[in-house]
Amino acid sequence: MEPKPPSTPRVNLRTPDVMSHVQAQVESHYRSGFVEKIRACGGVLNSGTTTIRLAKQFGFCYGVERAIDLAYSAGKVFAGRRIFLLGEIIHNPDVNAQMSALGIRRLEARPTAEEIAQLEASDVVIIPAFGAEVKTVQAIRDRGCQVVDTTCGDVMSVWKRVRQNAADQVTSIIHGKAVHEETRATASRALGPDGAGHYLIVLDLGQTRRICDFLENGGDPAAFLREFEGAASPGFDPSHHLKRIGVANQTTMLRSETEAIQALLRAAIARRDGGSPSNFRYFDTICGATQERQDALFQLLAEPLDLLIVIGGYNSSNTTHLVEIGTKNHPTWFVRNAGCLVSAEEIRHYDLHKKTEVRSADWLPLNRPLTIGVTAGASCPNNLIEEIIRRVLELRGDPAEA
Hints:
Largest sheet: 5 strands, mixed
Distance between the termini: 51 Å
Strand content: 15-25%
CATH superfamily of the largest domain: 4-hydroxy-3-methylbut-2-enyl diphosphate reductase, catalytic domain
Number of strands: 15
Strand order of the largest sheet: 1-2-15-11-12
Number of domains: 3
């Protein structure tokens, strides 16, 4: 268990009167009747020579909706008090800009001691949907602040697993991105309440194979740690702390990759231990909404498409994986909003390999019928999807009526 914080009064942010006000606000900011009409028509919009096909599952998930509702509720219930958001509520720049427009101030996801010291007991701090590190939350609570925790339940399920690993002296191998807020939050729980637990963060199959090689053949611990710099717990010793391992994950990774990683590690442990995988454990903790959006995209890609548009924040992990799926078979454009669709000749989009926004030419053919697939990550609101579709139809010269 994490140490109990100093007590602050519990405040119900989801009373009927608050929620009726909040839902009206949220709907005005993020909902789209246009998109809902397309969904009601089987996810297909035919307009002139353009066909738009929406994935069956896209956009906001329950966890994101809950986080946004709580943030808006905090703005109403704690009106007149300073309200801070720890990092980003979700990985979508338009949504985070709206939080700023509501008067919610921004703290860094990993605030410095100086920033924490500026907080007052009357302040309110919102924990984002992907959670925060134990030490950060504790420091905020120690200031006496009112904490509004919007952490997704799927994320907390992973925390439960890694805490149990720490209690059982099992090292957590976390499939995720070492710089991602959720992975850092999970890693902090993998240390256990006394800090004696251990973790190792693995990004992909290449790094997994390196771990497997060490499991079976040993090697130079110092060289191993250099390869995993910034991704291992303090005092991590691969010669000792890989004896018993349990695989966990950042909830927004590709399920197929997590499963491949755990299979490689399980097999390596079994070979090392003479055929027994008793020193290995694995629980499937991929977020259900993430999986639904990946499955829906695979289904969409089975249809005849000329190109795919994926909408979401460039630092959104679950959106990035949708792009990875799309690019295997189709021209795929990863955009944040309609402003990225400069013209039929020019588009601004995120390049996963260059890790930056780039410009490409002649992305949207105009002289022939076109079928365009559209999907969006779990942190993308429907109003942005509507704006993208309307912009595509405008560039194509087709009417935008659902």
